[in-house]
Specification:
By secondary structure, the protein is mainly alpha-helical. Helix content is 86%, strand content 0%. The protein has nine helices and no strands. It is globular. 33% of the residues are buried.
């Protein structure tokens, strides 16, 4: 769906459509909804609340897909994906000790979010703790996109492109940092 189509659908159906769309693709939906709020089609506080709720529902869904998914896959598929018992234990250990920061990195880089949310579920991270970190990450992230939509939302097509570019840049930067850290740990 194009951004223009999303704008027209949200304009016609309001928050009833913003909510489900925010579950699927939060940032640009938040920008467009906030822009429509500025134009008087919706209440800005309701847009913020619905977009936060939609983002958190999506995060919960990804967690449970990650948690239940491996149980549904045959062992040979898990082996092909590299999910050995040792890696599973390492993943569980990581999310037990550094899960909060990992969740925040996923929230704020956007592109890394989906794999991190799935991995947190596969690692069986404590769900209330997982959701608490998602709330901490979602509130400011959604506020930023709401403000962007309010102040420069008319450029939503360009904003969507920049969201993608910045997200890609953050992921590339994160990968480079992780490679440097990994290289330093090697004997």
């Amino acid at each position: 769906m194009t951004q223009d189509a999303a704008l027209h659908l949200m304009q016609a159906h309001g928050l009833w459509l913003v909510g489900p769309m925010a579950v699927i693709e939060g940032p640009i939906v938040t920008v467009i909804a906030a822009y429509l709020a500025k134009l008087g089609y919706m209440n800005i506080w309701a847009v913020y609340a619905v977009c936060v709720l939609g983002d958190l529902i999506g995060d919960a869904m990804y967690y449970w897909i990650g948690r239940l998914g491996p149980a549904l896959l045959p062992d040979r598929w898990l082996a092909r994906l590299g999910m050995t018992e040792a890696r599973k234990l390492a993943l569980e250990g990581h999310f037990a000790t550094k899960g909060g920061w990992t969740i925040l990195v996923g929230k704020w880089t956007h592109s890394a979010g989906l794999p991190i949310m799935l991995a947190s579920g596969a690692a069986r991270m404590n769900f209330p703790v997982y959701m608490a970190y998602n709330v901490v990450g979602t509130l400011p992230k959604t506020a930023v996109f709401t403000l962007i939509g309010w102040f420069i939302g008319s450029a939503y097509t360009a904003i969507d492109t920049w969201i993608w570019r910045v997200s890609l840049g953050l992921v590339v930067g994160l990968v480079l940092v992780l490679l440097v850290l990994w290289q330093r740990r090697r004997p």
